[in-house]
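User: I'm putting together notes for a lab meeting next week and I want to include a structural view of one of the chains we've been expressing. I don't have a solved structure, so I'd like a prediction I can at least talk through. The sequence is below, exactly as it appears in our construct file.
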Amino acid sequence: MLDAALSSYGAQVVLASSGDENHPPENIIDGKTETFWITTGLFPQEFIIRFPDNMKILTLSIHSYNIQKLRIEKSTSDDVDHFEEVADTEFEHTESSLQANDVSVNVSNATHLRFVILSGYDHFVSVHKVSVES
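Assistant: Thanks for the context. Below is the predicted structure for the 134-residue chain, given as structure tokens.
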């Protein structure tokens, strides 16, 4: 299966609500779980991934720390001003390992995905990797 959320495929993080120069949002789509994007401690936090083409999306895999509630939205336009919710989920808390969650979305087409972290188990959360099965 193709992972459409890789920078090597042409995906881009076009918006992130917070940033740290040592842990930039581009780390989310580099395909590695060793690198990550970290939030600044307030909620909600969000990031948007843009795909090079309109994508059919079946499943999302998210590797993270301390995310409690997450909403995922899609857009089908070139502008990122209109999104529609495709999933709303809660992750189980893990103490010493990455949260690894698969979210079935079965989206027929999307040019952008917005991930809105509504709450966390701690003040800071990190997103290590997002994979998109298309």
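A couple of points you could mention at the meeting. The beta strands are 12-16, 37-38, 45-65, 67-75, 84-90, 99-120, 126-133. The chain has no helices and seven strands.

User: Perfect, that's what I needed.
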